[in-house]
């Protein structure tokens, strides 16, 4: 319970789901051979942390930010530029980290102090403008960022796929640098999610919830809400930048499409809504559902279309054609928001009883 | 008796509306000052202006001799001003305990003070770990008041605490407020319930159209039916 900061999932089904997801992710290199499965698992880990950090903002403070991918991109580019420029060594990794994280925090601080003292819509607009400007800047500074092509780089020796740490002859599985990188991504993402769980269950987290519910009431109790919101914005930015670092390390690449694209922002929003806002656990569920659907729905539809065709069913083969997977993905999300308005976690918690039995009056 | 809070020629504009039109009032230390008046007279705006939730456009507000009209709300609260807004203002998503811990600004809760509060509002002990949003209206109001008194405050601003509550709950609230008064608290209390006003008030201020139209002792107003009718349009006798 200590590790969950006194905030357990509060639903048996949810607990079971989380355990299955975490065990499956941890065992992916051994259970699901192949590069695609490992890529999907790493992406789930990175996005779970990224979405959890966005949940700190949206779910716990009610602030809508469109700059989250910017912080994610700052982390990605910082590590990519450092490794590209300094070569594949640990000093470059350290340089990327000590450059990227403070830069993300400073930008979040500036945006927060500038825009969080006024209406929430102003904060949303400012973050949108800053994120767009940053995207253009990253594209224009091609001597530094590689422009539209991005930056590919090599990892330090230990993390390279060719580095065999434990040979196949020992346990029947080969542990190489790629798998070590995966576990690095897994462990750091897990630590960040646990840290966020600690933050939201701390007295600071309660103040954030109070601000979300009624900012004036929180101020009337003596809380300087601008500082609390700015601090939350900086924390979320730090975690997002760290997730960006992990993503770049995994992909060995940072570019506009993988790090700064606005579609990533939309994906984050969808994941947080599907999982359940203001829960942190929702980030794990949302990221898992979304990324699995994004990666496997097309193949599943291919199988289904083929089966329907062989059975001689009318219309269905066309409807289930793999090329229409985005349409079905959209429909799935509409259905999930319709049937789970409080997200999967909210729905499961409600079914499980939830916090506080309530008054008998 | 020294005045803890003083408002001199305070004006407040909300958008293009001129709500407070030169308020002059004083709240003596250790006394309960009732702020009465018809709906829309400016009572809630007065409390919110003192609290800094609406900025005074002109005039002076002093708390214990210190000018506060340009301070931000959190700074005013940190000077020891507790505010109980109307409409059972609790944080619904937090538990009763979390609401009170928050009000103590995350310092440790004083067990003696907590036991004293539970003495008046036993329901708060019973629903200690329940979400505040699941409480009944009366319980929410109790929690709202408990939040304001969980820490010692120099001044309490309370806005219509009995509004919409059952008579039994109103009596419990009046007893609680009397006890707070006996402990020497200074309170500026907006109230529409005349019975509660008479029971609690030492002094009275009556507002109309954003100005103070009457000031005096509560007992004197309670005894003067024609004055009540003239100022407020109804009498205490008719209200009982």
Strand order of the largest sheet of chain B: 6-7-8-3-9-10
Helical stretch tally of chain B: 11
Individual helix count of chain A: 17
Contiguous runs where pLDDT drops below 50 for at least 5 residues of chain B: none
How many domains make up the 3D coordinates of chain A?
Answer: 1
Largest interface: A-B, 24 and 32 residues
Give the CATH architecture of chain A.
Orthogonal Bundle
Over all CA atoms, what is the radius of gyration of chain A? 21 Å
CATH topology of chain B: Rossmann fold
SS-derived structural category of chain B: alpha/beta
Q: Profile the largest sheet of chain B.
A: 6 strands, mixed
Average predicted confidence as pLDDT of chain B: 89
Pfam families (chain B): ABC_tran (PF00005)
Protein name (chain B): ABC transporter ATP-binding protein
Family (chain B): Belongs to the ABC transporter superfamily.
Keywords (chain B): Amino-acid transport, ATP-binding, Nucleotide-binding, Transport
Task: Show the helix and strand layout.
The complex is a heterodimer of chains A (361) and B (240).
Chain A: H1 12-31, H2 35-61, H3 68-86, H4 90-115, H5 120-140, H6 142-145, E1 151-152, E2 164-166, H7 168-171, E3 175-176, H8 177-200, H9 203-213, H10 215-220, H11 225-251, E4 253-254, H12 256-260, H13 262-275, H14 281-310, H15 316-319, H16 325-339, H17 343-351
Antiparallel strand pairs in A: 1-4, 2-3
Chain B: E1 3-14, E2 17-28, E3 32-37, H1 43-50, E4 58-63, E5 66-67, H2 73-78, E6 81-84, H3 96-103, H4 111-120, H5 122-126, H6 137-149, E7 155-159, H7 167-182, E8 186-190, H8 194-200, E9 203-208, E10 211-217, H9 218-223, H10 225-232, H11 236-239
Parallel strand pairs in B: 3-8, 3-9, 6-7, 7-8
Antiparallel strand pairs in B: 1-2, 1-4, 4-5, 9-10
Helix pairs in contact in B: 3-6
Function (chain B): Involved in beta-(1-->2)glucan export. Transmembrane domains (TMD) form a pore in the inner membrane and the ATP-binding domain (NBD) is responsible for energy generation.
GO molecular function (chain B): ATP binding; ATP hydrolysis activity; branched-chain amino acid transmembrane transporter activity
Protein name (chain B): ABC transporter ATP-binding protein
